[in-house]
Design goal:
By secondary structure, the chain is mainly alpha-helical. The protein is about 70% helix and about 0% strand.
Length: about 190
């Protein structure tokens, strides 16, 4: 890792977050239906190659660089994106699709709770909400809930993209900490 790059912003983290961000944006926009003629099925190729293979390889590279947190996240997410993409044409029940999304959501929840930088946790948290909403939408057969989940995926993708771009462009990547109450000052 480059000496002037802070922890969590190495090149493999940047590549992984870009891959995740692009995949989430394509996936989310497909579910929102905001672009005429674009559906979630149109995100399959991106999910397979960018979200699946590229993210998985970025995870392996991060693990090689001893970045176990991002390495684990990217490898697991890459495997799940690849699985989602290759099974997109399979004839499964709505409940089976919902179960897959629910299991995918549990992984995103684990990544959110694992800690790390604020942008990473924010992206994984939004992704968790997105997958949870989409899983419930499959169980309840609700197109409206799927669209809301799509918007959460778009937000997660935007946060992941910003996190990667911020590391490259040296933009702010953390919210400033402020005292708990008025009149309270931090010492040190």
């Amino acid at each position: 890792m480059d000496n002037d790059v802070s922890a969590g912003s190495g090149i493999t983290t940047v590549v992984g977050r870009l891959a995740l961000g692009i995949t989430l944006l394509a996936f989310g926009l497909g579910y929102t239906g905001v672009i005429d003629g674009v559906s979630a099925a149109d995100a399959v190729s991106i999910a397979q190659y960018v979200g699946g293979i590229a993210l998985f390889v970025a995870g392996l590279m991060a693990l090689r660089d001893r970045d176990s947190a991002n390495g684990t996240a990217f490898v697991v997410l890459g495997a799940l994106w690849f699985t989602w993409a290759v099974s997109a044409d399979a004839q499964v029940s709505a409940n089976a699709a919902g179960l897959f999304l629910l299991l995918f959501a549990l992984v995103a929840l684990s990544l959110t709770l694992a800690g790390g930088d604020q942008l990473g946790q924010g992206a994984y948290g939004l992704f968790f909400v997105s997958l949870l909403l989409m899983a419930v939408a499959n169980f309840a057969d609700s197109d409206g809930l799927s669209k809301v989940g799509g918007w959460f995926a778009v937000a997660a993708g935007a946060v992941a993209w910003y996190a990667a771009t911020a590391a490259l462009a040296h933009w702010p990547a953390a919210l400033p900490r402020r005292a708990a109450d008025r009149g309270v000052t931090a010492t040190g």
